C-alpha cells in the first residue's frame, strides 16, 4: 500500500482540528493559500529561468557565427509562447471542452478578472493568474526544444511561424488529453510534470523539423561523420545548471501547491535522478569514447531530469536513482546512434527530450508505487502524443518548406545566420590579450 | 538589554489572541506574517540578481577592452549602494521627516533593533530588516543605470564618488516624495514600483553624465555616426534574462506582502508587458533596420518591463500588453534618435530607463483602472523628479569635472580602461581552437 | 546566558496555546510548517546555485586550456556529493551515533519513507527530504572548494576519488561534531552556517592538495613569481554574484525555518558583510597594488561572506560590517602572502575559504552578542577541524599520489587538461569579428 495515502489521510484528519469547528469548510485557510500561491510563483520564475538555460546551452553547443540567431530565437520564443498562451493556449488546454466564446483571451475575460479567480475559490493552490503564468512558462519550453535541433540552418521567420502555431495549438491540444482531463487522463495515463506532454512534444517537433531540414552543410560528407563542436563550453555548462535549477520549479511546481511532503519528495527524486544521470553518462562516455566528454555529461544531467519528470511524485527514491542513471546511459548511446544514422541534431535535443521523455513516461509503468499505473497505458500515451505531434509538426514545417522555405541558402549557412538573418555578429571587437 | 527577550515577550502577548474569535483585529497571524516576509525576502534576492543582469548586459554591449572596468563598477555599486543605504538612505527615504538623530544608521539603532521591528507590529508584510534589504537592493539599481550610459570613458574614482552621493542622498530624497509619504504622494501621484522613482532617477543621472562626458572617441566623426558594437551578445542576453527574472521581485515585491491575488496579477502584467515589448521592438527593428536586431529586441524586453513598472498593479491585463508593446516600439525609435542627435549612450540606458520610465509613469494616467489617477499629476511627478535628478546629477558630475575630472585621457580610452584603471585585462590568455 | 534558550523555551510554552487544547501537542500549525518548509526548499535551490557560481568563478580565474576540465569536475562534484550524501553522508552526519544499520541509505529506508518524515512530526521547520536536500547541497560545496585550488594540474580520476571520500566521510564526520550534536557542540562551539564546518573543511583539503601537487608549471621560476591570469573576468564575476546569491540560502536557510525576524536579520548581516568585504578589498588592493584589482574585489566579496557565515545570527549589524570589512582586507593580504611563500592556489580558495573561515569562526568569539560564546572554544573548534581535515586530506591525496598519481604529465599540463583528460576544447571554432 501507498504511504502517500496514509499521509493524505492523516492530514485530512488534522484539518478539521485546525481552528474553529466550522470555519474552513471547503477551502484552505488564507494562510495556506498564501503559502501555496507563493510557492507556485517561485516555481513559475524557476521555469522562466529554464529559458535562459536553453538559450545558453544551445548557444554554447553551436558555432559562434550562429550565436545571435540562436539568442534571438530563444528570446522571441518566450515572448511568443507567453502571448499566444494568453490569447488561446491557456483556454484551449484547460477547460477540456471547446467553445469559441471560452476560447480566446482568458475565457472572454471572465473568471480571470473577477474576484474568485484571485482567491482559493478558484483553486486551493494558486490564483487564476498564477495558474496562467506557471502554465505559460511551460508552454514556451516545448517550442524552445525544437529550436536547438533545427539550429544553424533554419530560416528565422519560418521558425517563428512554426513556433507560434505549435505553442498556440498543438502543445495545448495534446496537453489537454491528460492535464485538461481528456481521454488519456480517463484511461489512467500518468505524466506528472511532462516527460511526454512537454519534452516529447518538443522532441517530436524537433525530429520532424530536422528530417525536413536535412543536416548542416559539411556534417555528413561521403562516408564521414564530421563532428561540429560547440563554441563555448562555459555557456553550455551554465545552461545545464540553469535548467537543473529551473527543474526544481518545473517538477516542484507540478505538485500544484506547497504541500511540504510532496514538494520535498519531488525535489529529492528530481535531484537524485539528475545526479545519477550525470554519473551514468560519465561512465558510458568514458567507456565508449575512452575519455569523459563534457557535453555528454551535461546531456546526462538533462536526461536524468527529463526521465524523472513523468514520475517524480510516484516512484521511490531508489527508483529515481535507477531512472536517472539509465537515462544517462541512454542519452549517450542515443546521441551516438542518431548521429550515425545521419540525423543532425546539433545539441542532442532529440536524444534528451524525445528519447528520455519516452523512457521517463514508460518508467512510470515500471517503477510507479501506484498500482493503477500500467506500462500499456503509458505506451499508448507515448504513441498517441508521438503520432499527433510528429504529424502536425511535419505538416507545419512541410507547408512552410513548400511556401516560405525553411532553410537558409548555403551561402548564408556558410557565412553564418548572424550576418544573414540579423546583420550583426555575436563577438564583435572581442579582444584577446596574450600576456601568457 | 537584549532585544530577543523583547521579541519573545511580544510573541507571548500575541499568541493567545491568535485563535480566539476576535483575534485578527490589527495584525496578521504569525503564519501570514511568515509567508509575507518569506515572499519579500525572495523578492529581495530577485532584485539582487538584477545587479548581475546589469553587469552582464553592460559588459556584453561594450568593448572587451573596458570589460574589467564595467564589472568592477557594477560590483562596487552594489556594495556602495547597500552600505550608504544602511548609513543614511533608508532613514532619509522612509520616515518622511528629517531629524538628525533619526537620520544615520537605522535611526540611531532604534526601532530596527527592538523586538517590534521583527514582528508584524512593525509591518504586516515584513520585518524591519526585510524592509531595509528590499529597499537597499532597489537603491543600488538607480546608480547602476547611470553606469551603463557613461561606460567606456568615465574615470573610475569620479564615478564611484558620484554613485555614492546619488544613492545616498538624491535617490532617497526623490523617493521620499512618494514612497515616504511626501508631497507627490499627497497629490495622488502613482508609481507602483518605480518607473519614475527608480528608472527615471537613474535615467536622468545617465543623461546628465553623458552630456558632461561627451561621446566616446571615434563615435561621431565629421558627418558619420559610427556604430560601436558590443563584444559579447551572449553576455548581453544573459543580462536581459536576469533582469527580467529580477523584475518578478522588483514588481512582485512591491506588493509589499505575499497577497496571492495581487502578486500573481503583477506577475502577469509584468510578464506580458515584457513579452509585448520584445515583439514590439522586433517589428519596429525589422521594419526600420530591415533585419531584426538582437540588441533592439533585448532593449525591447527591458522597455516593456520599465514601462509596466509604474502601473503593474493598477492597469488591466490587456493594457499591460499595450503598454509593453508601445514601450518596445518607443525604445527602438529612441535609441536611433538619441544616437542621431549625437548623445552617446553605449547600452541604450537613457532610452530604456528614462524614456520608457516616463512612458510608464504617464501610462498610469491613461490606463489605470483607478479613477483617482490622473495624467496631469503623473506628468507633474515626471517633471519634478526630472528637474531634481537632472539638476543634481549635473551638479555632482559638473563639480567632479571641475575638480577630479570625469573623463579618462584619450590615450587611456583608446587602450581601454581595463589597463588604464585596473592594470589588468578581461580575456587574458583566452585561447581559441580552430578544429573547424 | 543564552537568548536562544529563552526563545525556544518561550516557544515551547506558546505552542499548546496555539490552537485547540489538544491537537498540536508538539508541532507547529500546518500553515507554519508549509511556510517553513517552502523557505527551506528555496534555500536549498539557492545553495544549489552556488555550484554554478563555483564553476564559473574557477573557470574564469584559470586558463582556457583547462576550462572543460574545470567545468567537468564541478559538474561531477555536485552529482557525487549528492549521491554519496544519500548513500551515507546524511546518516553519518546527523544521528550523531554510529550504527551500521542506521548508516547507509536513509537509515535503511526507515524514517524517510514513512509518513512522519513528511510532517512536522519530523521537524517543525522542514520534512525529512528537505533536510536531506538542504544538507546534501552543503556537502558538495566542501569538495568544490578544493577543486579550485588544485585546478590546472590535478588528474581527473584521482580528484574524483578524493572528492568522493572527502564528501562521503570527512565532511560529515567533522560536521557531526557540531551539527550532529557531538563533542564540539557540547563544548559550546558555535558555527552558525559553516565558516569552519564547510569553508575551512574545504580550505584545509585545498591546502593539503596544493602542497602535495606543487605549483603549476611556470608559476615560480628561479626568483620570479609569475602571475597566471584567468581567461575570463566576466565568468569570474558571474561566479561571485551567483555565490553571493546562493549565500542568501546558505546562511538564510541555516535558520532552519522561515522565522521572519531571524531570517531577515541573517539576510542583513550576510549582505552587509559581503558589501563591506568588497570595499575592504578595494581599499587594500588600491593601496598595495596601486590599481584596484577586480579579482581581489571579487575575492573580497566572498571573504566577507565566508567571514560572516559562522556568526550571521549572533553578531550585531555593526559587527557584521566590521567582520566583512576586515575579511576583505585579510583576503588581499593572504592572497599576496600565500603566493609569496610559493603556494600556488589559482583561484585564491585557501585565502577565501580557509583564512576567512578561521577569521569568521574566531570573530564569533569576539563579536557575538551571546556571552556563552568564547574565543577559546572557537579556537579549539578551528584547530580540531583543521587537524582532522588537513591530516585526512593529506592522507587521501598522499595515498593517491603513491598509487594512481595525482598530477598530470608536464606535457599534458602544457597542452592543457582539456585535450589531455577529455579530448575536447572549450572554445572550438569561436570566431571573433573585427569590424572595429
Q: In words, what does this structure look like?
A:
The structure is a homotrimer of 436-residue chains. In chain A, 68% of the residues lie in helices and 1% in strands. The first copy, chain A, has 436 residues and is an all-alpha fold. The first copy, chain A, has a single domain, classed as Ammonium transporter AmtB like domains (Ammonium transporter fold, Orthogonal Bundle). In chain A, strands 1-2 form a two-stranded antiparallel sheet. In chain A, a hairpin with a 2-residue loop joins strand 1 and strand 2. The longest helix of chain A has 31 residues, at 30-60. Chain A is globular. Chain A starts with a helix and ends in a 14-residue tail after the last helix. Residues 1-25 of chain A have low confidence and may be disordered. Chains in contact: A-B, A-C, B-C.
Keywords:
mainly alpha, globular, two-stranded antiparallel sheet, 1% strand, disordered N terminus, homotrimer, 2 strands, Ammonium transporter fold, 436 residues
**How much strand of chain A?**
under 5%
CATH topology grouping of chain A:
Ammonium transporter fold
Shape call of chain A: globular
Largest sheet: spatial strand order of chain A? 1-2
Run of helices and strands of chain A: HHHHHHHHEEHHHHHHHH
Structural class of chain A, by secondary structure, is mainly alpha
Low-confidence stretches of chain A: 1-25
Distance between the termini of chain A: 65 Å
Q: What Rg of chain A do the Cα atoms give? A: 22 Å
Amino acid at each position: 500500500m501507498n504511504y502517500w495515502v496514509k499521509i493524505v489521510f492523516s492530514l485530512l484528519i488534522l484539518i478539521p482540528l485546525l481552528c474553529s469547528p466550522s470555519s474552513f469548510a471547503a477551502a484552505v485557510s488564507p494562510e495556506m493559500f498564501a503559502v501555496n500561491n507563493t510557492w507556485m510563483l517561485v516555481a513559475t520564475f524557476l521555469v522562466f529561468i529554464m529559458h535562459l538555460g536553453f538559450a545558453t546551452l544551445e548557444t554554447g553547443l553551436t558555432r559562434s557565427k550562429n550565436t545571435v540567431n540562436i539568442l534571438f530565437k530563444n528570446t522571441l520564443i518566450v515572448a511568443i509562447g507567453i502571448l499566444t498562451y494568453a490569447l488561446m493556449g491557456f483556454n484551449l488546454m484547460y477547460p477540456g471542452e471547446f467553445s469559441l466564446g471560452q476560447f480566446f483571451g482568458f475565457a472572454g475575460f471572465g473568471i480571470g478578472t473577477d474576484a474568485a479567480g484571485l482567491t482559493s475559490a478558484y483553486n486551493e493552490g494558486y490564483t487564476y493568474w498564477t495558474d496562467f503564468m506557471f502554465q505559460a512558462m511551460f508552454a514556451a519550453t516545448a517550442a524552445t526544444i525544437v529550436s536547438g535541433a533545427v539550429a544553424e540552418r533554419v530560416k528565422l521567420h519560418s521558425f517563428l511561424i512554426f513556433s507560434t502555431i505549435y505553442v498556440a495549438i498543438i502543445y495545448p491540444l495534446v496537453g489537454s488529453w491528460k492535464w485538461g482531463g481528456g481521454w488519456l487522463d480517463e484511461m489512467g495515463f500518468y505524466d506528472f510534470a511532462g516527460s511526454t506532454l512537454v519534452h516529447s512534444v518538443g522532441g517530436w517537433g524537433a525530429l520532424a523539423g530536422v528530417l525536413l531540414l536535412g543536416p548542416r552543410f559539411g556534417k555528413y560528407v561521403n562516408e564521414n561523420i564530421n563532428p561540429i563542436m560547440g563554441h563555448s563550453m562555459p555557456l553550455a555548462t551554465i545552461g545545464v545548471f540553469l535548467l537543473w535549477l529551473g527543474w526544481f520549479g518545473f517538477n516542484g511546481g507540478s505538485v500544484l501547491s506547497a504541500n511540504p511532503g510532496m514538494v520535498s519528495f519531488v525535489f529529492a527524486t528530481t535531484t537524485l535522478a539528475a545526479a545519477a544521470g550525470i554519473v551514468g553518462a560519465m561512465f558510458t562516455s568514458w567507456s565508449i569514447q575512452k575519455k569523459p566528454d563534457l557535453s555528454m555529461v551535461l546531456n546526462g544531467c538533462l536526461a536524468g531530469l527529463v526521465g524523472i519528470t513523468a514520475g517524480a511524485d510516484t516512484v521511490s527514491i531508489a527508483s529515481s536513482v535507477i531512472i536517472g542513471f539509465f537515462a544517462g546511459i541512454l542519452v549517450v548511446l542515443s546521441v551516438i546512434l542518431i548521429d550515425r544514422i545521419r540525423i543532425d541534431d546539433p545539441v542532442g535535443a532529440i536524444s534528451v527530450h524525445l528519447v528520455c521523455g519516452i523512457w521517463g513516461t514508460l518508467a512510470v509503468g515500471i517503477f510507479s508505487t501506484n498500482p493503477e499505473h500500467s506500462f500499456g497505458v503509458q505506451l499508448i500515451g507515448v504513441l498517441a502524443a508521438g503520432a499527433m505531434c510528429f504529424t502536425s509538426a511535419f505538416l507545419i514545417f512541410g507547408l512552410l518548406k513548400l511556401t516560405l522555405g525553411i532553410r537558409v541558402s548555403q551561402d548564408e549557412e556558410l557565412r553564418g545566420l548572424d550576418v544573414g538573418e540579423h546583420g550583426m555578429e555575436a563577438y564583435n571587437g572581442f579582444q584577446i590579450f596574450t600576456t601568457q
